[in-house]
Specification:
Strand order of the largest sheet: 8-7-6-9-10-11
Largest sheet: 6 strands, parallel
Number of helices: 15
Structural class: alpha/beta
Strand content: 15-25%
Bound molecules: nicotinamide-adenine-dinucleotide
Distance between the termini: 38 Å
Order of helices and strands: HEEEHEHHEHHEHEHEEHEHEHHHHH
Number of strands: 11
CATH superfamily of the largest domain: NAD(P)-binding Rossmann-like Domain
């Protein structure tokens, strides 16, 4: 029997899930609020043609919980939330659709703050912003922080350097062989830093145009076929495309010392693949720890955006990553678990501050 939404909320610890449907605009929206102990929940709006309502609910629940961990470990006073809109982006997106959705966001009175995600753009955020002030990640010309990808990539770069320090004894990436899987927004900005530092960069992407863009920009980058990436001997594997690329099959093939990338949910199953990496001697930089640069950037927009402050705050990912590696060693657990425990401790400590219990 399929678990009900309430069953899933209980299992995953969600506070609230709100649904909205509107026949005039075709809006079918789910806003999942996982945890607001640290502050209002923040997470992007994803528009996707889900095969079932259940798939959409599960995605909203899973993604909003991920945002709680990401903000908690990054020291932000934000909770975890995510919105999932069901349908075909090419048919639905227009001003009325986004403004109707904006009113739905507004009805939650700031318990959920939205931002861009898959299939949502700056213009969409502008329309949402006509109906609610609870929207962030606005374009620079509206006083917002603009595209978060450069900051996400910067955080990944910091996490990668910390990982190199732990694995190789120096945080220099000069001469290191790094494979960046995915030459999209995050991958491209990451490769820019790596090339600047003198790393030997390889990349793969299923989109030829993206590959051409990066190799035109950085001719020293070598392209590897998507189905051959794990045949390559490399120092660092940087997943910057999809989730779940670190799985039983790929770990068996991997010839690298470090995994540090920007993709969300890299481990197919945390409890299985975290320990498997430890056994194989591969150092894993927890994804939600090192790819938090985008959310950190957005959180700075809420207080009044300042780019310099954004970069210096995101740079703290370097020390945080080293700290998590130490914790994992001390407690003899895999690094993802050490990071999750640190996030959970902050949530528990601050909940006690609020309740006094
Ligand atoms: P993007 O869509 O710009 O880039 C992803 C790239 O991966 C695309 O070029 C796509 O063609 C490629 N790709 C898809 N399947 C592939 C495969 N099997 N092999 C190789 N390449 C493949 O997305 P992005 O904004 O760069 O985000 C990349 C990842 O980082 C995503 O998992 C995203 O959730 C995560 N992330 C992004 C941000 C951000 O600020 N953009 C923040 C946190 C996490």
């Amino acid at each position: 029997m399929q678990a009900s939404t309430l069953d899933l909320m209980q299992q995953m610890g969600h506070e609230q899930v709100a649904f909205c449907q509107d026949p005039h605009t075709g809006l079918n929206a789910i806003i999942a609020i996982h945890n607001t102990v640290l502050g209002p929940s923040l997470g992007g709006t994803r528009l996707w043609n889900y095969t079932s309502h259940q798939d959409a609910i599960v995605d909203a629940l899973r993604l909003s919980r991920g945002m709680t961990y990401k903000s908690a470990i990054s020291g932000l006073n934000l909770g975890g939330g995510k919105a999932v809109l069901i349908g075909d982006a090419s048919k639905l997106k227009n001003e009325a659709y986004w403004r109707r959705y904006g009113r739905f966001v507004n009805s939650l009175n700031g318990k959920y703050i939205t931002a861009e995600d898959v299939n949502t753009s700056k213009l969409d955020m502008e329309y949402i912003g006509m109906e609610t002030k609870f929207v962030t990640g606005k374009p620079e010309y509206m006083g917002g922080s603009g595209d978060p990808s450069p900051l996400t990539a910067w955080g990944v770069y910091m996490g990668m350097k910390a990982s190199a320090k732990k694995a190789f004894g120096s945080d220099s990436l000069a001469g290191k062989k790094v494979l960046v899987q995915g030459a999209g927004n995050v991958g491209r900005y990451l490769m820019e830093q790596l090339v600047k530092e003198g790393a030997k960069v390889y990349t793969s992407d299923i989109n030829e145009t993206k590959l051409k863009e990066v190799t035109d920009m950085f001719p020293s980058i070598e392209v590897v076929a998507s189905d051959a990436i794990f045949d390559l001997e490399m120092d660092i594997y940087a997943p910057c495309a999809l989730g779940a690329t670190v799985n039983t099959e790929s770990i068996e093939k991997m010839k690298c010392a470090v995994i540090a990338g920007g993709a969300n949910n890299q481990l197919a199953e945390e409890d299985v693949h975290g320990p498997m990496l430890v056994k194989k001697g591969i150092l894993y930089a927890p994804d939600f720890l090192i790819n938090a640069g985008g959310i950190i950037n957005i959180s700075i927009e809420i207080d009044g955006y300042n780019k310099e402050r954004a970069y210096s705050t995101v740079s703290k990912i370097y020390d945080r990553t080293l700290h998590i590696f130490d914790m994992a060693e001390k407690d003899a657990v895999h690094t993802q678990l050490a990071a999750m425990r640190m996030a959970e401790k902050r949530l528990t400590d601050i909940a006690k501050v609020h309740t006094g219990l």
